[in-house]
Amino acid sequence: MAIYYIAFASVVLFLFNSLTNRLCIQKNIPAEKQVNVFRWINIMITILLVSSYIEVIYVS
Please, which domain of life does this record's source organism belong to (predicted)? Predict the structure, then answer.
């Protein structure tokens, strides 16, 4: 179960990073601010993935 979830989480993080990159390009965000945008989004998505994994473990 954990192996499948890690693969799923990796795909989700990759997709959100590519979408964030498109957003930064489209909105012409400076490079020094892009680091903060990527960090913030990656932290929030990681929290979401960890909490959903915990939810799946305790519900099953």
Answer: Bacteria
Q: Which pLDDT tens digit goes with each residue over 18-50?
A: 999 999 999 999 999 999 999 999 999 999 999
Query: What DSSP letter does each residue of 8-37 carry, written as one string?
Result: HHHHHHHHHHHHHHHHHHHTT--HHHHHHH
Q: Is the dihedral of CA 6, 8, 14, 16 positive or negative?
A: negative
* Global model pTM greater than 0.90: no
Local structure of residue 60 (DSSP, 8 states): -
How far, in Å, CA of 24 to CA of 5, rounded? 28
Q: Are 4 and 56 in contact (CB under 8 A)?
A: no
